[in-house]
Write a structure and sequence with these properties.
Blueprint: E1 2-7, E2 10-13, E3 18-26, E4 33-40, E5 43-51, E6 58-60, E7 68-73, E8 78-83, E9 92-99, E10 111-112, E11 116-121
Parallel strand pairs: 2-11
Antiparallel strand pairs: 1-3, 3-8, 4-5, 4-9, 5-6, 7-8, 9-10, 9-11
Length: 122
Amino acid sequence: QVQLVESGGGLVQAGGSLRLSCAASGRTSSRFAVGWFRPAPGSEREFLTAISRTGLGIFYADSVKGRFTISRDNAKNTVYLQMNSLKPEDTAAYYCAAKISGSYLATPYDDWGQGTQVTVSS
């Protein structure tokens, strides 16, 4: 099992930027894929972006493509989400999650953090 802790959320004006961090502990000797999610109307969570175990594979949902960038620092057991050009509709709790086996493109993910709140004012 992997324990995940998100940080970096806060209040920002529209057009601004935030960088979220997802720090992992526990089963970090084995690499795992990491994804970022947020609640979405009509579904449990919106799958925003993910990065593979190696960092070579990256996915972005259309809603964040070109604005958000995911990266990982395996030496620090941390995955980052750089969010630029934020919009009021990006306001949500953001969750990172780990996927121990299988494709990083496929949900569900296995272990989840508690979330960090992002609020974008207009």
